[in-house]
Amino acid sequence: PPLILLHGFDSSCLEYRRIGPELAEQGIDTYAVDILGWGFTQLDDVTSFSADAKIQALKSFVKSKFGVHSSFCVAGASLGGAAAIELAAALSMPTCAGLILIDAQGFVDGVGPMALLPKPLAKIGVGVLRSIPLRNMANQMSYYDKEKFATDDAQVIGRLHCLREGWSDAMVSFMQSGGFSPSSKVATITSPALVLWGRDDGILDGDEFANKFVEELPNAELEWIAECGHVPHLEQPKVTASAIVSFLTSDKVT
Predict the structure, then answer these.
(1) Does domain 3-249 have CATH number 3.40.50.2000?
(2) Which position among 11, 50, 71, 78 bears the catalytic label?
(3) Is 183 among the catalytic positions?
(4) Phi and psi of 104, rounded to 5°?
């Protein structure tokens, strides 16, 4: 089945710039999709960028691209994992033939105090998210090999979409919607699942969260990615792609 790749919080499809070609070369029909309100999606004439609106947009993408009776697989990294969980839970088997979680957030619901801020204050708050110092700090936290990967180029690519007009309003809309609520949906997903986790993730503790996914998902397997931080698809793209291809071409995924 075709594979949809969902990026993390306030990121873009460019997050899959290294693994996308690896998957395509191995014959996987791959779609790196921007989540509504992030990346380079439409920002004008959209009434809501809430968590629900994001999932509705993804469901519409699936329907328009693959049809109502075709199956697909979905992979989500970090907060994109929450979106992938919600999409897989909404469409379930046989439509969602497989779920891949990459250092995914699945057991933390909402966005915290930001959901309660008045819009003017929330807009000031989200403005910090596009600052160069914060983006550099996020890069430092994301990688195991910081010298090789936490570069100025990585910061520029990760921040590029934030400079679009309408970005801050879209972000505030999402924050005030309360964010994703995936935790209660994890155990309901019957699709076969692959959990991939960077062994040296400094953002989400794999010993806690990766194992919890395996415990709660009815049909899941776990694979650790060595010498890797929070973003295996960027830091170890060949190894990560190989694990994904093995999963997608196995008897589990039909």
Answers:
(1) no
(2) 78
(3) no
(4) -90, 150
Burial of 193 (C-beta count, 10 Å sphere; 0-12/13-18/19+) = buried
Can 78 be counted among the known catalytic residues? yes
Residues in the chain: 254
For 127-156, write each residue's pLDDT tens digit: 778 889 988 999 999 999 999 999 999 999
Sign of CA dihedral 167, 45, 85, 33: negative
Catalytic residue among 7, 71, 161, 230: 230
**What are the extents of the domains in the chain?**
3-249
- Is residue 201 annotated as a catalytic residue, yes or no? yes
Phi/psi at 197 (5° precision): -145, 130
- Record the pTM: 0.94
Q: What is the tens place of the pLDDT at every residue in 4-57? A: 999 999 999 999 999 999 999 999 999 999 999 999 999 999 999 999 999 999
